[in-house]
Amino acid sequence: MKLSPAPSHLMELPRKILIGDRVVSEVGSFVRSLDVAAKNVAVISGKVVKERAGEECNSSLEDALFHTKWHIVSDASMETVGRLHDRIREDRPDFVLGFGGGRSVDVAKMTAFRLGRPFLSVPTSASHDGIASPFVSVRGTDKPHSIKANTPLGVLADIHLMSQAPKRLLAGGCGDLVAKITAVKDWELARDEKGEYYGSYAANLAYMSAKIMLDESEKLKKNAMLSIRTIVEALISAGVAACIAGSSRPCSGAEHLFSHALEYVAGHDCGLHGERVGIGTIMMAKLHGLDWENVRHTLENMGAPTRADQIGITEEQVVQALVKAQSLRPDRYTILGKVKMDKKKARELAKAVKVT
Q1: Which domains are present in the chain?
Q2: DSSP calls for 35-94
Q3: In angstroms, how far is the first alpha carbon of the chain from the final one?
Q4: Which long-range contacts (CB under 8 A, 24 or more apart) does 289-297 make?
Q5: Are 205 and 215 in contact (CB under 8 A)?
Q6: Calpha distance 55→215 (Å, rounded)
Q7: 148 exposed, middle or buried (CB, 10 Å; 0-12, 13-18, 19+)?
Q8: What are the helix (H) ranges across the chain?
C-alpha cells in the first residue's frame, strides 16, 4: 500500500504543566506565569467541586489580582455550552478556567474555543485524557465522537484533590489509558491497509501511556497516591500525543467507537466513558490478536469493570453496539472495518472475552 504524504497540521501543546500535592493554592501564580495579559477570569466548575475546593482556588486567583466570576454546570452538552457562551461573552473574560471533572473541563474548553479565549485545565479527577488534549466530548453535536477545540494553555493537576474524587473516576481513567494499545493498532492498520498518515512519535507516546498501566497495575493497586500520580501523568502524556498527531488517532480507535455506539443503543446512562472504553478495549485486543487477558487483568486490578452487566448493559446491547460502531465514523478505519462485524461475530466475540 502506497502511503499518503504526511499532511500538514499545527501542533499546539500545553505551555506549562504543574502536578503536585495541594497545588491548587498556586493556581493564581500559575496563570500569571503563563504570560497571558489577563484580568478577568471565567471559572467553569461543578457544584460539588466548587463547594469542596472552590474557596481555595478563588482565593489564589484573587491574590494574583484576577477578577473571577464562577459558572456552575451540571452536564456536558452543546446546549450548556451555548448558554454559557452567551452569558460569559457579556463579561468579556480574558481567560477561561475549567475547574472540576471531565464534564467541567470539556465544557470550559469548548466555551473558551467559541469565545476565542485561552483556556486553563484544572482537573480534579483523573477520569480521561481530555485534560491535556484539544478534544472534547459533549452531547448534542452532529458528530458521534470527540470534536476538536483548543489545546489547554496550561494544566494544573492537584494530586490531593484527585485523591478525594470517587474511585470510580480513577478506574475510568485507567480504562481510557489501556485503550491506547488498541487505538495505536488501529492507526497502524489504517496506515498499512489504507495508506493513512501515521506519526510514529505520537503513536509511541500514546502506547507508552497504556503500557505503564499494563505493566504496573499490580504495584499501583497497592499504592493509592502513586496510582493517581501515574494515571494523571499518563493521561496528560496521551493528551499531548493527540496534540502532536493533530488528531485523536493515537488515543481513539474502535474501542472508542464502541463506547459511542453504546450511548446510541443504551442511552447516556450506560457507565462512564472510561468504563465503556475499557470494556471495548478487551474486545478489540482480542480482534487484534493482543493479550486481551492482560488488558482484562489490568482493569480488574484498578477496580474498573470488565463485564457489561457491571455497567448495566445487556448482551444484546453489546452486540448492537459492536455492529453499529464502525458506521458512526466510516472515515476512521479500524479493526471493526476489517472484520465486517455482524451480530453472530459480535456475540461470539463478547462471550469469548467474558464481556457477556
Answers
A1: 16-165 (3.40.50.1970), 169-352 (1.20.1090.10)
A2: T---SEEEEEE-HHHHHHHHHHHHHHHHHTT-EEEEEE-S--BHHHHHHHHHHHHTT--S
A3: 37
A4: 290/181, 290/182, 290/185, 292/353, 294/214, 295/178, 295/181, 295/214, 296/353, 296/354, 297/217
A5: no
A6: 39
A7: middle
A8: 27-33, 47-63, 78-89, 102-115, 159-163, 167-178, 180-194, 200-220, 224-245, 254-266, 273-288, 292-301, 315-328, 335-339, 343-352
Identity of the amino acid at 93: P
Contact (CB, 8 A) for 122 and 70: no
Residue 140 in grid coordinates: 448534542
The one-digit pLDDT tens for each residue of the chain (356 residues) are 555 566 677 788 899 999 999 999 999 999 999 988 789 999 999 999 999 999 999 999 999 999 999 999 888 778 888 888 888 988 889 999 999 988 899 989 999 999 999 999 999 999 888 899 998 877 766 555 578 888 999 999 999 999 999 999 999 999 999 999 999 999 999 999 999 999 999 999 999 999 999 999 999 989 888 999 999 999 999 999 999 999 999 999 999 999 999 998 998 789 999 999 999 999 999 999 999 999 999 999 999 999 999 999 999 999 999 999 999 999 999 999 999 999 999 999 999 999 99
Give the length of the chain.
Answer: 356
Kindly provide the b/e burial profile for residues 20-55, where b requires at least 16 CB atoms within 10 angstroms of the residue's own CB.
eeebbebbbebbeeeebebeebbbbbbeebbebbbe
Radius of gyration of the chain (CA): 20
* Beta bridge mates, 158: 20
Q: Are 324 and 259 in contact (CB under 8 A)?
A: no
pTM: 0.93
Cα–chain-centroid distance for residue 65? 32
